[in-house]
Amino acid sequence: MTGYGTYPGSEKAEWLATTRRSLLSAIPSLAMAYALPTSAAAEANRPKLRVVSLNWAMSEMLYAMNLTPIAAAEIAGYERMVGYPPTPPDVIDLGFQINPNLELLSRIEPDLILIQSWQAAGRPILERFAPVESFTLYDRGKGDPIEAARGVALCLASLCGNPAVACDFLSRMDQSFADCAKRIAAKEQRPILLVQALSPTNLVVFTGGSLFDSAMRRIGLQNAWSKSPTLLWGSTQIGVDTLAAYPQACVVWIASPDGASSDALFRSDLWRQLPQAVNGQVRELPLIWGFGALPTAERFARLITATLAGSGE
To answer: Per residue in 219-236, pLDDT tens?
Structure first.
């Protein structure tokens, strides 16, 4: 996580810097969220700043904590690829994550702009409009994205002036993971090969350092793929025939955005001859954004639990 962009002579930049410095001391008070009545919690959730989210992962975290930004990037794409939590109806669409509508951004007059570190090239331009806060969830296949997302949730809630809401959010996420783990443990499970089609002959397999691997470990599932990732954000490109080297694994298939690659592969002789296909050890999941944040990880955990252990979402 990087620091704020400079915003010379701005009181809001000073306020944001003070908020960030005091975050650690504020975290113990987050426990008070448990005691907030519903009406008080709803009032507390209203952001005290005009926040703009130019990143889908940041958007889903804000929506999950009921911290509605004034504007967000690529709303239609978010709804198609992420979709959970849904975008509130009054959020303004600012266009692309890497190339937002700067004229509209200027008219909005935000107090704070949120990005991820992979968007850093555009930061100098964005800093002309407001202080910029950049977060890192994925570290080139290293680290734990869920743990990183937990820290981001605390920071986002504090930056929005509502630190207490993060405690309730994280508690709900932890409880959901625990419920999934209990159901997974009730039935013996095979190691998992988690894949998504890139083409009729090539797949991406999710490895250590990915959001999905982090979620699987939290609910007691073993990733059959133990090699280090070769792609960013915890994944490796493989040929379909590579799956044959893991006959004891269950292949869990995440739907592709277009669907065509998966359909073509499932009709191929190569696929039908795989040991997992022959033995009925293939499970399918709907499209899930593989590079999201904590709400996506929790949704994935519920979906894979429903598929493997027979429990509902």
So the answer is: 999 999 999 888 878 999
